[in-house]
Amino acid sequence: KENPNPTEDEIRDYIRGNICRCTGYIQIIKAIEECASKAKTN
Questions:
Q1: Distances (CA, A) of 31 to 17, 37
Q2: Nearest to 11 by CA among 41, 1, 30, 42
Q3: Per-residue pLDDT at 13 exceeds 80
Q4: What is the pLDDT of residue 12?
Q5: Per-domain residue ranges for the chain?
Q6: Burial classification of residue 42, based on how many CB atoms lie within 10 Å of its CB (0-12 exposed, 13-18 middle, 19 or more buried)
Q7: CB under 8 Å, gap of 24 or more: what pairs does 8-17 form?
C-alpha cells in the first residue's frame, strides 16, 4: 500500500532482516515484483 511499484532495491530493503539471506531472495523478489505488477493492472 505504501509503494505499489517498488524497485528491486526497495524490495530488498523491505525484506532485509526478515528472511534468511542464504538464497539471495531471488525468487521472493521476483514474486513480489510480479504481484506488484498485477496489482497495478487491476
A1: 18, 10
A2: 30
A3: yes
A4: 86
A5: 8-41
A6: exposed
A7: 8/33
pLDDT category of residue 34 using cuts at 50, 70 and 90: very high
- Write the DSSP assignment of 1-42 as a string of letters: ---SS--HHHHHHHHTTTS-GGGTTHHHHHHHHHHHHHHHH-
Cell numbers representing residue 35 in the block: 504481484
Q: Taking all residues of the chain, what is their mean pLDDT, rounded to a whole number?
A: 82
Residue 42 is placed in which grid cell? Answer: 487491476
- Give the model's pLDDT for residue 21: 66
